[in-house]
Amino acid sequence: MSPIITAFERSPDRGRGLARDMRVRWALEEVGQPHEVRLVSFSEMKQSAHRRLHPFGQIPTYEEGDLTLFESGAIVFHIAERHAGLLPNDANARARAIAWMFAALSTVEPPIVEREQVPYAEGEKSWYKERLPLLEDRIRVRLDDLSIRLGDADWLDGEFSAGDLLMVMVLRRLEGMNILDEYPNLSAYVARGEARPAYKRAFAAQLAVFTGKPSNG
Ligand code: GTB
């Protein structure tokens, strides 16, 4: 039975692949797992049927037989554990790849999300213009270190892993902010992720929801 994931019926990103279903779609494509996507509206997400799948009334969710999951990181981890291709077999390398998954979501993503939300949440406030560069500098603190660690390697720790998948997706959230341009090796890293055939198939599938035209991937 194919797993079913949920995604926005109308994503506010207008098909740019920035909503968190994209990371789950990409993981499923990397491991070659066919899946179904159930699209939900904002009002459906807040109703009890969806809240049974996701306590916070959000996307993405994942249903597979009698297993239901929420949280994109947990879903990607589950996919990576059940299929070959996203986590190394060597136990220590596997642990390090998992550490990168956590680093992406709990160390690098939070300042990016805060910067992303501040125009909506505090755009009218008197402190907004002063706060913006402070938030951008907090992102740079993380990117400086990430850029040094990546150096001229293709991926964060040997072969491409679920850690890279999540890190690339997190860095993609900087699209339109110009900060990534300050880090040529991180820009190239994101481009490498986006060039993967599995990424392209996942991106096309989520874009097709926005355009209404079926993807060929
Ligand atoms: N920690 C959870 C996870 O990783 O799964 C966070 C899930 C989450 O934030 N889901 C968002 C959601 O359901 C969609 S992805 N929001 C509706 C709600 O909370 O009511 C976040 C997102 C939304 C839009 C854009 N965008 O337009 O660029 C980017 C990211």
What does the model show?
There is one protein chain. With 217 residues, the chain is α+β, with helices and mostly antiparallel strands. Helix content is 56%, strand content 8%. The protein has helices spanning 21-30, 42-45, 48-51, 72-82, 91-122, 128-150, 162-172, 184-194, 197-211; strands spanning 4-8, 36-40, 61-64, 67-70. Strand 1 (4-8), helix 1 and strand 2 form a beta-alpha-beta unit. Helix 1 (21-30) packs antiparallel against helix 7 and helix 1 (21-30) crosses helix 9. The longest helix has 32 residues, at 91-122. The structure holds S-(P-nitrobenzyl)glutathione. S-(P-nitrobenzyl)glutathione binds next to helix 4.
Structural class: alpha+beta
What percentage of the residues does DSSP assign to strands (E)?
A: 5-15%
Average pLDDT number? 96
What's the helical proportion of residues?
55-70%
The residue ranges in which pLDDT falls below 50 over 5 or more consecutive positions are none
Question: How is the CATH topology of the largest domain named?
Answer: Glutathione S-transferase Yfyf (Class Pi), Chain A, domain 2
Output the helix-strand order: EHEHHEEHHHHHH
Give the CA-based shape: globular
Q: Say how many strands there are.
A: 4
